[in-house]
Amino acid sequence: MKRVYNFNAGPSAMPLEVLKQVQEEFLDFAHTGMSIVEISHRSAAYQAMQDDTVCMLRRLLRIPDGYHIVFIQGGGSMQFIMHAANFLKHRGAYINTGVWSDKAMQAAAFYGETYEAASSKADHFTYIPEAGSAVIKPDTDYVYITSNNTIHGTEWHDFPSCNVPLFCDMSSDFLSRPVDISRFDLVYAGVQKNVGPAGVVVTIIKDSLLVQANSQLPLMLQYKTYVDHDSTYNTPPVFNIYFVNKVLHWLDAQGGLKEIEKRNIQKAHILYQVIDESDGFYKGHAVPQSRSRMNVTFNLPTPALEAEFVAQAAEASLIGLKGHRSIGGCRASIYNAVTEEGCQALAAFMMKFQKNH
Ligand SMILES: *Cc1c(COP(=O)(O)O)cnc(C)c1O
């Protein structure tokens, strides 16, 4: 078996230890003599695992009392709809930092008035606006942000404070660092970037927000349905939740989110240093103070060189370095499961490639 260095943006690298463990347990989940994909989601064995998953999320993220954690299908894109369906009554404010916040705002517009409270669109989403620069109109129901901009390679390092509920799409940096959940009213993360296989979203919702939700919606669109039925109103994505459970235990065994953050800072530093010391051969997309620790985006002098870079890297088992089709260039996604060794291998390749060109 040959494993490559995987820099895919999502779905993306998962911890090898977890993949092996899942493989090992696949035929016999928790001594039931059945696979996790074969047992009832109403069984005690399943319920214990799901409870433990919620418990681990609470512990790792230090989620305070007064919040519920639920599992929802439909990906991040379904949350673009649900957050507005449930909570957009007068107007929703969006801090537009990239393709995903743009899409969330467009999806939300179906339910009411949306507006950009701040935006870095005019500068090709190269930076995160100053937290204090957002202009919030009267009767705003919530402010919506995207903590990490997967496509553009920017990340909030200091979250805004506002006097309306704060919503956050954390899909691409969820569990990559400690976060003070008490600053948010609604947090969600599609797990396929950092935490598991595509097919489930973790949504964390504050009880004081939940009681204000629109109750005139189809049940499957109401957060309350997921909360009231402990995510099992209908069949939850059992395998995905099980996999997330394994990743959470892996994170815990690594030393938790403080430790993982430390490693992520170091990994990102390895790559940004190559970019900064390349005399402009590699040009980072993001301004330095807004750089993402998860997605390192950069350009080479020409699109032809970028294509050659991606192709040669793949030959060297460095996979997934092509930038998103909407902005081009190159992107190295270095989520939790990407090792420091992987980042060093890429850094060495980048230096060699520059020398040869
Ligand atoms: C990938 C991504 C999404 C979209 O998720 P889907 O599950 O494909 O709908 C949303 N937000 C962010 C920040 C992402 O990185």
From TrEMBL:
Positions carrying N6-(pyridoxal phosphate)lysine are: 193
Predominant cellular place of this UniProt entry's protein: cytoplasm
Q: Which Gene3D superfamilies match?
A: Aspartate Aminotransferase, domain 1 (3.90.1150.10), Type I PLP-dependent aspartate aminotransferase-like (Major domain) (3.40.640.10)
InterPro entries recorded for this chain? Answer: Aminotrans_V_dom, Pser_aminoTfrase, PyrdxlP-dep_Trfase, PyrdxlP-dep_Trfase_major, PyrdxlP-dep_Trfase_small
User: Which GO BP annotation is one of this protein's?
Assistant: L-serine biosynthetic process
User: Which pathway does this chain act in?
Assistant: Amino-acid biosynthesis; L-serine biosynthesis; L-serine from 3-phospho-D-glycerate: step 2/3
| Positions annotated to bind L-glutamate | 42
Membrane-spanning residues = none
EC assignment: the record states 2.6.1.52
Location comes to: Cytoplasm
Reported cofactor(s): pyridoxal 5'-phosphate
- Provide the residue positions that the database annotates as binding pyridoxal 5'-phosphate: 76-77, 100, 150, 169, 192, 234-235
Cofactor comment in the record?
A: Binds 1 pyridoxal phosphate per subunit.
The residues covered by the Aminotransferase class V domain are 4-346
The molecular function terms in GO held by this entry are: O-phospho-L-serine:2-oxoglutarate aminotransferase activity; pyridoxal phosphate binding
Q: Which reaction does it catalyse?
A: 4-(phosphooxy)-L-threonine + 2-oxoglutarate = (R)-3-hydroxy-2-oxo-4-phosphooxybutanoate + L-glutamate; O-phospho-L-serine + 2-oxoglutarate = 3-phosphooxypyruvate + L-glutamate
UniProt KW tRNA-binding keyword = no
* Domain of life, source organism: Bacteria
Please give an example of a GO cellular component term from this record.
cytoplasm
Instruction: Specify the enzyme's EC class, one word.
Output: transferase
NCBIfam families recorded: PRK05355.1 (NF003764), serC_1 (TIGR01364)
Q: Which family does it belong to?
A: Belongs to the class-V pyridoxal-phosphate-dependent aminotransferase family. SerC subfamily.
Subunit structure, per the record? Answer: Homodimer.
- What job does the chain carry out? Catalyzes the reversible conversion of 3-phosphohydroxypyruvate to phosphoserine and of 3-hydroxy-2-oxo-4-phosphonooxybutanoate to phosphohydroxythreonine.
Quote the protein name from its UniProt record: Phosphoserine aminotransferase
Look up and give the organism this protein is from.
Answer: Megasphaera cerevisiae DSM 20462
What is the name of the gene encoding this protein? serC
